[in-house]
Amino acid sequence: MTDGSPQRGCLRCHGRAPWQDEVPGSAWTVALVGLPNVGKTSLFNALTGQFQHTGNWPGKTVMYHVGRVEGPQGAVFVVDLPGLYSLDPLSPEERLTQDQLTFYPFDAVVHVVDASHLARDLYLMAQLLELGLPMLVALNMWDVASREGIHIHLERFSRLLGVPVIPTVARKEEGVASLRDALLTRLPGLQPGRPPRYPQRIEEAVGYIQTLLAPYLEEWPDSRLRGLSLRLLEGHLHLLEAMLPHPEARVLTDQVAALREEYTSSWEEDPALVVADARYGWAEGLLRSVVTYHQRQRFRLTRAVDRFVTHKWLGLTIFFLVMLWVSTCSASKPSGRVRPSNWISNRRAGIPTEKLEARTTGSSSA
Predict the structure, then answer these.
(1) What torsion do the CA atoms of 222, 191, 168, 285 make, to the nearest 10 degrees?
(2) Is 152 helix (H, G, I), strand (E, B) or coil?
(3) Which of 41, 210, 257, 279 could bridge across to 126 with cysteines, CB 3.0–4.6 Å?
(4) Could you tell me the maximum CA-CA distance found in the chain, to the nearest angstrom?
(5) Where are the beta strands (DSSP E) in the chain?
(6) More reliable by pLDDT, 145 or 335
(7) CB atoms near residue 213 (< 10 Å)
(8) Of 224, 250, 253, 186, nearest in space to 101 by CA
């Protein structure tokens, strides 16, 4: 498994991530990524079982989890990164995950999505595809989607993304064996997926930034350079300062900032908004292509009851019987017991319960 795998390392000033101390230098390493509450950690536990280590990121209260998937030809190490909604970080956890995916050379990304709410996962999926890393998609909560009448065309979905798509139910460990097998056997030949394509003016700007970056990041493949160039065009210029020495970063930052300004003045639009709008359009089109919604078969008992009570003749009979029962109950002689409402009122007024029951009993005898 380890033959031909890339050397473990990172970019310039970032040093080693804490999880790298748990991973041999030549081992295959996969990042587990997804929105919060999609069952990512449950899937991590099902994949790695007892072969896992937990720790804290330096200077943070955020925990990291590293586990390994054992195979006959070696192990694949899985890093469970903190959940995030997009690669535009709004919290320290999201910033940490963005930095890990940008600065550390994972061999692949496993994107865990909620199959029952696929639409909200697709924006992050577009950004992960843009990173230029090999990727697999784990469609978790597949059973919930089926109950909700949601059918996802797996082959079409995989073909459009250009990556394997595997349905899973992590809490029942369904589909976990298929995902584990994919990591152990398909990882060496796994390729980056098909990211969204943007308007020509955006692609030209991305291509220009890519030519600026190429001399400084010669070891990066074109797919990763394109993803980083797109991030810079969106305005994430701090990435350059973290990746390159100060003078080089300053020069590139000024060049990209000038390009952004020229783009905004020429087209009268923010390139970040154009890219975001294109991602949402890509997600909407993908959703229409791969998802079919069926009528959910719920509340069958309610439908059966409705069939009787709304019947032309039987419904009237049921109505009169219910009204007769209500009238009979209303006309019946009240018992000598104290009504609960009166008991509560009298308790609040301070009247002892024993006196109240004696008074009620005496009135009934009279």
Answers:
(1) 60
(2) strand
(3) 279
(4) 107
(5) 28-34, 52-56, 63-71, 74-80, 108-114, 135-140, 150-152, 165-167, 291-293
(6) 145
(7) 21
(8) 224
